[in-house]
Amino acid sequence: xxxxxxxxxxxxxxxxxxxxxxxxxxxxxxxxxxxxxxxxxxxxxxxxxxxxxxxxxxxxxxxxxxxxxxxxxxxxxxxxxxxxxxxxxxxxxxxxxxxxxxxxxxxxxxxxxxxxxxxxxxxxxxxx
Length: 128
Description:
CATH superfamily: Nucleic acid-binding proteins
Number of helices: 1
Largest sheet: 5 strands, mixed, barrel
Strand content: over 45%
CATH architecture: Beta Barrel
Distance between the termini: 32 Å
Helix content: under 10%
């Protein structure tokens, strides 16, 4: 038996990207920063180390959610892990990435345009 279930909570690193497939299905992609506490061996202090998690939502909910969240929004997502594999067109190397396919999302605040400026950790150099 295997269980594929994940729940993460963190802040969006940039505005989500909404697109549609050729068949018209809505796809929302965003990245969430989840900090990990690590002890710095040199100083003895505890540091927050960011981990960026790619998340994807599908269907009508994806379009609705895109209106409510933006860069810096705090969310809690629950879903399942999925590995995407492809071959790099330039180098021919096999590549892969792990993402969360979101089944459920919770967020605070009103619509995106009405949200107050939040104190959030996000990185303009977010790779996602």
